[in-house]
Amino acid sequence: MSQENVNKLWTPASHGLTSRRDFLTAAGAGVGLAAANMTILDLLKTPSLAAEMKSSRKHVILLWLAGGASQLETWDPKPGRPTGGPFRAIDTNVSGVQISELMPKMAQRMDKVAVVRSLNTRVADHGGGADIMETGRAVEQGLPYPDLGALMAHELGRIDSQVPDYVSMYSSTEGRRRGTSGFLGGRYAPMFLTEQMVPENLRRPEQLVEHDQTRRLELRSFLANRFQQGRPDLALSSHASAYQRVRGLMASEKLFDIEQEPAEMRAKYGPTQFGEQCLVARRLVEAGVPFVKVARAWWDSHGQNFETHLELVAELDHVLSTLMDDLADRGLLQDTLIVTLSEFGRTPNINPSLGRDHFASAWSSVLIGAGVQGGAVWGKSDENGQTVADGEVKAGDLFATIYEAVGIDHKKEFHVGSRPIPITDFGCAPIQKLLA
Question: Are residues 222 and 116 in the same domain?
Answer without folding.
Answer: no
